[in-house]
Each structure stands twice: as structure tokens, then as C-alpha cells.
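Regression test attached.
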Amino acid sequence: MIERRPYLDVVRHAVLIAGVAIVMLPIYMAFVASTLSFEQVMRVPMQLWPGTHLLDNYAAVLAHGTTRASSAPVGRMMLNSLVMALVIAVGKISISIVSAFAIVYFRFPLRRTFFWMIFITLMLPVEVRIIPTFKVVSDLGMLDSYAGLTIPLIASATATFLFRQFFLTIPDELMEAARIDGAGPMRFFKDVVLPLSRTNIAALFVILFIYGWNQYLWPLLITTQESMYTTVIGIKRMMAGGDAATEWNLVMATAILAMLPPALVVVLMQKWFVKGLVETEK
Amino acid sequence: MEKRAQFSSRWLPYVLVSPQIAVTLVFFFWPALQALYWSALLQDAFASKTQFVWFDNFEALFQDSIYLASFKVTALFSALVAAIGLAISLLLAVLADRVLRGARAYKALLVWPYAVAPAVAGVLWVFLLSPSIGVVAYMLRSIGVDWNYYVHSDQALLLVVVAAVWKQISYNFLFFLAGLQSIPASLVEAAAIDGAGPVRRFWTIVFPLLSPTTFFLLVVNVVYAFFDTFAIIDATTQGGPAQATQILVFKVYQDGVQALDLGGSAAQSVVLMLIVISLTVIQFRYVERKVQY
């Protein structure tokens, strides 16, 4: 602190508190709505403090969704989202760490070609190749399956780069020592590279779990059966029928359920989360 | 940069890169090439007749007033999202950087929206701003605003901008805070000794030193507004009213998936690809320059 200006401190805290209040407002109101009965939610203006229907609402959506729109149980959707988030996070990390290992620790023809091929995927987000990708997945018979939900999203230029940058900082002596001791490449990978990459893996896991959990366009395209909906898709299906018919208390209970797992991951792994965020963008 | 010593094996490196390369070829390169090819085809909805028409689809696209309007909406939308989002998060980061008490609590509360899916962010704001039951809509009406985003196109745009900015605040805030914390305190102190007040110090020292972070975030936010906001639009306004919030990505989806206009949608995909490629190149040129510092 350079100079003490008590009035400035007051202004700072006031603006920050106002900022935090505005940022938290939608989440708080969603929580309040998720504890009210349908009649209470529809009363204008809605009350600003929690009601008594928390357990009823959450139990209802987990077991059998809404009564007026989609009746798909949210419990099943949470399971689908969890599978999708975990497979995408673990899959991206696994295939990226081995390809980065190959690109850094081996010299072989086509190495640069492979590297550039992985790099170019950065420029081809799902949004710009919606229909052809859908067609490929449908031709392979992967619609409405976990494989279809996850495998097409599993290539990762960012993760490969992050591991490549990190491997380049591992001292060469470690590898030479391993070779002198007679360790082959896979032994070196398992006993040296993998343990050293622990924090990078944790950081990436947080980012990629959230990425996988929050996917929208892809599951929207390739899931048609209720049993394959993810939570984020389910919320939208629950809102069918316009403003007056939407059971906002149930929709908001689902919204809270949808944000809980990624929020928990962020809060519990905050240290790695910030690290992962800053490093993946370098 | 390369390793001095490397392993040698005829087959192992290929095995190691094969899963990633396979996914890349099947789900990235092949569909992208398909999009390129289809963009030069004219096909009716039942795929019974197909004709190779070179650049006709692109010509038709750029003569289509709805498509051009969508370009304008996208430009306005991304400019608003980037400008408002960066301004608010910079303000919050500058303040959080200087407070002694509670900095951690503010940070912990401000990272929440990062965990919220864009579609859910859209739904949360619809709930607050819904003309019939929204709490914020009620407050707006009680101060005399005629709030109904189903009818007023500027209000619909405002709704999606608010939801998009809200979702991105955490990300911008964390990067600005990291940038601010890397500015040497001695520089700011020297300016203070020379008699520069807090506002002057911010504009002459802190803001210029923060410009690499700001530029980086600007590119990230534009990319975000172009592509990642599809879910926000789909969960809130669905492009309406009267295409007022129909951004390019949403139009590709509508024309391709709902209207089944393959050629036109593929041509739009190619245009979007060119936009992503140029944004990525800008981003990487900047990163390279930063590395040389």
C-alpha cells in the first residue's frame, strides 16, 4: 500500500461488494427459486428468501424431471454428464501426454507433420464443421452413445502443447541417466515423466472436466433419446412450452444441480484451477 | 527447441501418436474437407440431385441480406461482449489487487460463473429477465422501463450480452489479477513519490504495462463471443426476435440442422473457418512476440 486513504478503501470495498453481489445474484435467485413451490415461483414479484420445498423439488427432478415438459429423470442426466466429463478429461489428458512424449523424445519422419496436424485442430472448433462431423458420427453408428458423445471431442491441441512445453523443461540428464541404467522409453515415461507431470495433469483435469461437463452443441446434435441427455441439454428441454408453462422451480433445481459438480471441482481444486487456466493459454 | 538426446525406435512413436492422429483425421480433417467440398455443391433437401456449382453458394451468401445482417449482429455482439466484459473485470481486478482484507473472499466468489455452463448462464438470466415472472424485469418495469425482450430486439441483444459477459467475467478477472500482480511495485511507488495520484498512476503506468494481457483477453473474448455463445443464444432468444440476436454460428446451425440447406450452411462454415484461422494467427503472433520479451 503506497498511501493510506481510508475513504478510498471504503469506496473500493463498496464497489467490490456491489460487483460480487451482481455476479452472485443469478445463482442466489436460482437457488431461492429451487426451494419454492410452483405457485410461489409464479407469484410476481417472487419472494427473495428461500422457501421450504427444497427437498421436494430436488427429489422430483432427480427421479422424474418436470411434469409438464420433459419428464426425463435428471439423475440419469447427471450420470451421463459425469461419464462425458470424466471420459473427455481423462481421454484428452491420456492421448495428449503420449503424443507429446513421442514428439519430444523421439526423432522420426513425419514428426513435424503430426505436430502441425494436431496444431491445426485448434482452428476447427465443432461450431464450424457441425453437419459433416455429425454425418461422420452417424455413419459410424455412434449417435446416442457415450462413444459418440466423447471420442469426437477427445483430440486436444492445447493439452498436447502444454505437455510438450513442460517436457522440454525436463533436464536431459534425467533421460541420459535412465538410458545408462538400461531403462527403455516406456519405463522412462512411467517412472520419470509421469510422476513429474502430476501438477500439470491436475491443472488440466480441472479445466477439461468443466469443459466436458458444460458441452452443449455436441450433445444437442447427437443425442435424441432421453436416456442419453446430459444435464445441460435436459434443462433446455424442460423449458419447452413458453414462459407461463415453465416450472421454474424445477428448472432452477436442475440448473443448481448442473452447476454443482463443476463448481465443486473449481472450489476444491482452486490452486490447480488457476494454474491450469493461466498455463493452457500460454 | 529440441532434446539433445532422444530415444530411437522404428515403431513406438507412431503407436504413441496414433490415437490422437486417428481422432484428428476422422473427426476434424475429414469433416472440414467435407464442408469445403459441400460448400461448392448445390443439393436439394432430399439429396436426390447434386450439382457442382463452384463459388455460387458464396456469391448467394454475400448477396443474402439476412446473412449480412447476421454478420453485423455478430460484430456488434462481440464488440459489446468484449468491451463491457473487459471493462468490468478490469475494474474489479484493479480494486481486488489493492484491498488488504478480503481479497481471497472476493476472488473465491468471483470465480463462480466460470463453472457455470453457457447454456445454464443463459437460463439463469432468462429467469431474472423474463417479462412475466423475472425479478429484475419486475424492478425494471417498476421504474418505468417497457421491458419485453420477446418484442424489443435491442433488449433481446442486451439479454444475451449480459449473460455472455457474466459468464466470462471470472476468466477475465483472473487473468487481469495475474497481470496486475506481476507489475513491479517499485514502478508504482516511484510514480507515487513523484506525486502522481492513484488515477494518474493507473493510466500512465499500470494500464500500459497491462496491455499484453488486455490484448490477449481481447482476442480470447472475441473468439468466445463468436463461437462459445451458441449455447447462450439457443437457450435464450433462439436468434430472435426477427433475427436480432442471430449470430453467425447460430445461423450455420439453423440453416444446416433445421433448414437442411447443406450447401449454404457449408459455405457459412467455410467463412467461419477463415475467421477462426485469422483470429488464431493473430493470437499466436502476439504470443510469439511476448516470448521474445
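Expected vs. actual: identical. Chain B touches chain A through 97 residues (CB under 8 Å).
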